[in-house]
Amino acid sequence: MSGTTDLPKAPAEASKVALDSAVAQTLNGDAPATSEGGEAASSSDVNAAEYRTVFQDATNFNVKHPLYNSWTLWFDNPSQKGMASARGTKESWGDDMNKVVDFDSVEEFWGLYQNIVPPSELPQKANYYLFKQGVKPAWEDPANTNGGKWSIQLPRDKTRAAIDRLWLFTMLAAIGETLEAPFPDGVPPPSSSPQDELVTGVIMSARANFYRIAIWTRKAEDTEELAAKLLDIGKQFKVNVLGYDIDAKIGAGLTSDVEFQSHKESEKKKGKKTVV
Questions:
Q1: Which of 23, 163, 208, 258 has the most crowded Cβ, counting Cβ within 10 A?
Q2: Total domains in the fold of the chain
Q3: What transmembrane ranges does the database entry give (predicted)?
């Protein structure tokens, strides 16, 4: 089981907040703890002296820690690309996309993470999509239609040793809801509805010569207030997830800057981009 002591600021805080909140709820009786079999544990089973988190005992933990949102992991298999055309049927984007699993707790996330192929071992053209439950990783989904994405492209040969860690940090920041915190030291504002949350999902793409990590958002830069919030997401991504200094110039060769582009602008030959 991976620990959190080596995580950068945003993912580490995300894990700590989720754990502390759930443990506090359990000990105060505000939320039922669950046993390793998924059944609610009684107060005699779990108390201040006896609770065991997945970080303390990966097998015999007796407390689950709920995430703020439920999430879905998707994967597309490059070996299936083009099969519809070969069969003489019309192929559309997403035909080869497979839903892997839904999850809504810290424990389920780590169980999933420990049992999937890491990005460094993915074949060319493969993608992982981690999106909030109910949101499909496609432009056509209503949650994404008017949005855009922050992304970075990294050379495959020079990044292979680090890409698994960077993707893990990105996922932790997403499920821990820290990407939308005001930069550099703000706290994520509480949302009254899913429509108030900008981040809809994150994507890991493996290509022949590079990897790309992207953060998809529900909206693009149509007001000054929204543009400022989106800029904070980019800064959190660059500094607290990827580990760059805020003023670092990183775009060169196969390495891109950390840049934002709306989905509509990305359809243009030279669409507008925002760089942090």
A1: 258
A2: 1
A3: none
